[in-house]
Give the backbone structure.
Amino acid sequence: MSWSWRFETASGALVDPGEVGGAEFSAQGDAESWLGESWRDLADRGVGQVYLLEDGREVYGPMSLAAQE
């Protein structure tokens, strides 16, 4: 199994994972932990929302990276 994130701008345009440091993970928890540590940097790089993928299949999303006020 391979877990990864699909990155999009807030308007839904795809963001190249290579431009924002995307990676593949062997476990869902690892992918989610990485996002928890990286979301602010991703948001600063223009990522507005993410989708979690398992072997290319959408598991959940969109999940906004906008900071809660």
